[in-house]
Design a protein that fits this description.
The protein is mostly helical and about 140 residues long. The protein has 5 helices and 3 strands, in the order αβαββααα. It has a domain of about 80 residues: Double Stranded RNA Binding Domain. Helix content is about 55%, strand content about 10%.
Length: about 140
Amino acid sequence: MSDFPVTETKRQSLEARLEALGLREQDLEETFIRSGGAGGQHVNKTSTCVVLRHRPSGLEVRCQRERSQALNRFWARRLLADKYETMIKGRESEAEQRREKIRRQKRRRSRRAQERILEQKHRQSDKKQARRLPVNLD
């Protein structure tokens, strides 16, 4: 893998992850196209967008996250690894587990659960009410 403008630990971490997933550098087909969007004249003149394709699986990712082509090459490999891992592991992948956790958090509570929460709040309120000093009406 060629040098990317990232720290050595990040580069080694990416290499180890690609190796663990069985993604080899010679199986990747990399092409560069012009980016669009933010970045101004620089991205309009240079081919900074990276299209990375894994030949055996047919997976393809595009990355135009940064203005630098070298950084986009790094990010494209990370995106490809995420996508490949999700395809292989399915529901067990980290990305899928994060999505599932958010889905559970956003899910509407059942009526019984809402009632229990309200009941607990009322009990707490009564406790606090009992702690107050009595009001003198003289």
